[in-house]
Structures are given as structure tokens and as C-alpha cells.
Design brief:
Helix content is 61%, strand content 0%. The protein has 71 residues and is mainly α. Helix 2 packs across helix 3.
Length: 71
């Protein structure tokens, strides 16, 4: 499930939930709900995160295993 990818990308970048929440303009608690699957993450946030991590929305959503962003 894509929730694991969200957490893995964040941890691979050595970032805290607070940092990502700030990037998205939300609280850490709200972001935590997305990572744990208690709330669905909006598509606009997935787009922001894909750009931030240098990957694709498809990678975050587990539609591909290719982590590099599309050209």
C-alpha cells in the first residue's frame, strides 16, 4: 500500500513528520493520519510530495517500482 512508500520516502530522506507537514501546510497530526491510513491523502499533496522527493506520483501510489521521476 502506498502508505509505506510515504513513510519510506520520508525516512530515507531523514525527515520528521513535522517537516513534511510544514511543507504541505498542515499539522504533524494530520500528516500522521495520512501515513497510518486513517485518512486518504489528497491528490494535490501526492503531487507536492512527488516533486519534493524527485519521484513520480505513480511510484508513491505503487503503480510502478521505478523511483526516478518521469522526464
Amino acid at each position: 500500500m502506498y502508505l509505506k512508500r510515504l513513510k519510506d520516502l520520508r525516512e530515507d530522506a531523514d525527515l520528521k513528520q513535522f517537516t513534511i507537514a510544514s511543507l504541505l501546510g498542515i499539522t504533524r497530526q494530520q500528516y500522521s493520519l495520512y501515513e497510518t491510513g486513517k485518512r486518504d491523502i489528497p491528490a494535490e499533496y501526492i503531487k507536492i510530495l512527488a516533486k519534493f522527493y524527485g519521484t513520480s506520483c505513480d511510484y508513491i501510489l505503487e503503480m510502478t517500482n521505478e523511483q526516478k521521476a518521469y522526464k
